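quick one
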Amino acid sequence: MNIILLGAPGAGKGTQAEKICEYLGIPAISTGNIIREALKSGTEMGLKAKSFMEAGQLVPDEVVIGIIKDRLKEDDCKNGFILDGFPRTIPQAEALDTMGVVIDKVIDIEVPDEKIVARMSGRRVCGNCGASYHLMYKQPKVDGVCDLCAGTLVQRKDDHPDTVKERLTVYHSETEPLKDYYSKQGKLRIVEGQEEVSDTTALVYRELGE
Ligand code: ADP
Ligand code: ZN
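structure w/ adenosine-5'-diphosphate:
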């Protein structure tokens, strides 16, 4: 099954992508994580993306489309994949169609803006391996330390409140129109984000099963 996860920044797409990955045994592909990796290793693509990302703006379409084109060619995508954070604009969705990629379901996780702002302030990531945590919803076993690699947990630059507001504005203008795009194709499934991660996961699984 080929799945897209839609939703505002901080709606919990990444967390749900990991759950679906375990559940269905297909890879979760996060353009955000791929870009952050490139940034860390200082590749040309990383350098191009840096200023956009840190300002809370979208990285240009041609850059992310290139990333996805390459990633979907890899062997592990043969039996399906979960796209987390792609597409984020209509041209990105059209690029998937042009590539001949057939999407089965688009799960949209809905969380109101006020909640997003509150949630993002609690978000932390491992500076070493990129694993994500939350001060309230997904605490590490030891405060400030990554469960997986013992790296130090930090706040992403683009999770600071002003940048979050910019990202929400961008989400509403650029990404939200995708709901209509996929609704017209009969693929859109809406899930209300719950307080408990596992409750949201249950709703996501139900949509995937139907
Ligand atoms: P979140 O879903 O919490 O916003 P991501 O890790 O998915 O975070 O993305 C972080 C940033 O990476 C975005 O704000 C944007 O700058 C860039 N990015 C990720 N995916 C895309 C995409 N599909 N198109 C353009 N920019 C992207
Ligand atoms: Zn780590």
